[in-house]
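#help-structures
NK: newbie question, is this the right format to request a structure? protein is SDR family oxidoreductase
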Amino acid sequence: MDTNNGYTLITGGTSGIGFELAKIFAYNGHDLIIVARNENGLERAYKEFTLIGVDVVTISKDLFIKESPFEVYNEVKERGLPVDILVNNAGQGQYGEFAETNIYRELDIIQLNICSLMVLTKLFLREMLQKGNGKILNLSSIASKTPGPLQSVYHGTKAFVQSFTEAVRNEVKDTGVTLTALLPGVTDTDFFNKAQMQESRIVTEGVLDDPVKVAKDGYDALMRGDDMVISGFRNKMTVTLSNILPDHVAAENIHKRQAPVNKKK
């Protein structure tokens, strides 16, 4: 067991990769703070992880709202909960051509995927630096490595997360604090329903990764203090190919893979 003295705070920890990460942390003896907006999901997480034998604190906040990450931090401070590990997992996307998608939905996605992650990282990082130890896991994606037609804003937000994580990691090297980026591929979660992406070829014809395996890869990399981990051999090959190809060729390949199944190839 990799127990720690403080709490592990996980955003979006009631489903998908976030839930599986929370489960791994719990089984390794980490007390948890689970942040999500779904009350039923929070209740389920509380019951399941409490049975494992760790302390579980739930915070109901909608991280689409600008003030929410500040309120999460303030509530944690007011309750005297020391956070040694921060997992910025919450994130969503929107499917469709940029000229036709809902700009307000996209602004919400930028708030969730970028702004809330940045706020929570800054506030908890400062405390970790004062203590001289701590770990932060940011959910990036293999989408961070290539332009993403039909998911242009999502890919753009993940490119920010990847660059931001690597930059701050370098700034705090040799302080006892590490930042790690987890890069999943197409994973079997509710992400595609929320993004209205069920008809995408990459979902209907592709192989979906197991969120349990993705979470294990992320947890192990975080505990080792790695800078990043690409989950799965197939995704490693995808990123390698994307690094070789010119951006416009990579974008065209992604466009074909993410096109709806009823559209001609």
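mod (FA): yep, format's fine, and the tokens are attached above. The chain has a mean pLDDT of 93.
NK: thank you!
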